[in-house]
Amino acid sequence: MNLLKVFLTIFFAGFLIFFTSCNKENFEEEIINFNDENVIPPVISNNLSTVDERLLKENLDNIEVSNRNAWQFFKGMSLSSNSGYDFVEGFYTSNLESFDFKVRVKSNKTGRLDAWFSSPFRRSKYEFTSNDWKELIVTGNDMLPSEDIFRFFTFTSENYTYYEIEIYYRLKETIPNGWSMIESETGINLFEKNNRYVQEIDLSEGAYITLKQGTNSIGNTNNPSPAFRRKTLNWYWQNKASNTVAATNCQFFNLDGDLTDEVDAFLSFPIKDNSTVISAGSHNNQESGNKLKFGIDITSQQAWIASYNYDGNNYNTASNNLLSPLVIVGFHPTNVDKWKYFSTGRTMVGIKDSDGDGKKEKVYIITGKGTQFTIKDILEDDFGCTDVMMLDGSGSSQMTFNGTEYFPSSDDRTIPSVMYAIEG
User: Could you say which of 134, 151, 171 is where a domain stops?
Assistant: First the structure.
């Protein structure tokens, strides 16, 4: 008996160390597509736990408005299981589409976390391995109009399986008034209103931005601002990576030759991609005090917009002041006069913290016709951006998404650089 007590004490002490040693900040977030049809559902538990819609909303009423889209902790639990399905939690409300739900799971064995919906043959699943926090997110957009119940289950084919589980919920972000979501990929949505287009790029879902130039020159101390060949937007689309969703014009440049010529051009301001300064810029003395830099760190999944106050074209200076892996230098959206009161093609980028965690993980790229003030206000007022930067405009503004050129150049202009939006 004493030996059994010793064994059990050592076993449960080890189990406790296993879970408490987990760093809960280091997890991966996955959005799961519903592509698993004609599967056999588990036996549904009769004691379905219900979360009343009023309870969720009353809890949100006690939270600052700016944080209501942040994840709210609902409950945590520990489970032990042998092989098969185990019921985790069920939700039943008349307005599920207003909420997003997230389940985090860690286990000592390999297994699977499932989300089952009212329709018995709709399932979302994510397979996990031992010693690793994983997440399954169900968003309000995933619900069918007829569905008002869904349940989370764990599944494993192994005995003596232990789980630690956390459940969160948040109020789903709504589409801005008058806008329509016309395309959607993992981590990237495209919205349209009055022939203006906004890409929403969610870095927290693994989506990101990369750059491409018309030729593969790279700046250095001896040649800080190399020339790049101007190309059509279609050329950039044809030379994209396979997981590219969109291509949009990017940096200002000197416009020599005819608008449609494929000739060399110098980028006006610095750009950096994949931790390499591609160009230190050729006209950094323009608009001193009114330049901004937009940066993305893919590892920490956040973006910045800050002032850029260096007027020289020195390569080392640019390198020392462009610290993020990806950086584009542009203009303040309204302090610089680029025909600011004239309605013409505009491209701007904005960022915001949508979940209240202090990191600005959502990037918005707008392409459309308007004054500088109109386009800036759309990003700030309609999409909630707290920081905005202006990129090249007029005939340079152009954007293609999934091969459809939604906003073509007004004068068929060729450009030396684009931003690619890459799905998560």
Answer: 171
Last residue of a domain, one of 148, 171, 194: 171
For residue 4, is it within any domain? no
* 65 token code pair: 């408005």
Is 116 part of a structural domain of the chain?
yes
Residue 142: which residues within 8 A CB-CB, separation 6 or more? Answer: 34, 124
If 0-12 CB within 10 Å is exposed, 13-18 middle and 19+ buried, where does residue 29 land? middle
pTM of the model: 0.69
Residues 292 and 310 occupy one common structural domain: yes
**Gap between the Cα atoms of 417 and 232, Å rounded:** 10
Residue ranges making up the domain that contains 384: 180-422
Residue 185, strand partner residues: 188
Share of the chain above pLDDT 70, in %: 74
Same-domain pairing of 274 and 302: yes
386 Cβ partners below 8 Å, 6+ apart? 350, 351, 352, 353, 360, 380
Average pLDDT over residues 159-170: 81
74 and 134 assigned to the same domain: yes
How far apart (Å, rounded) are the C-alpha atoms in residues 294 and 241? Answer: 23
Residue 333 and residue 394 in one domain: yes
Query: DSSP string of 181-205?
Result: EEEEETTEEEEEETTEEEEEEEGGG
d(CA 387, CA 165): 36
3-state DSSP percent of the chain in helix, strand and coil, to 5? 15, 40, 45
Q: Read off the pLDDT of residues 215-238 as tens digits, 9 standing for 90 and up.
A: 888 888 888 999 999 999 999 999
Residues 234 and 94 in one domain: no
- What 3-state class would DSSP assign to 30? coil
12 part of a folded domain: no
Q: Do the beta carbons of residue 248 and residue 211 sit within 8 Å?
A: no
Q: Which residues pair with 206 in a beta bridge?
A: none
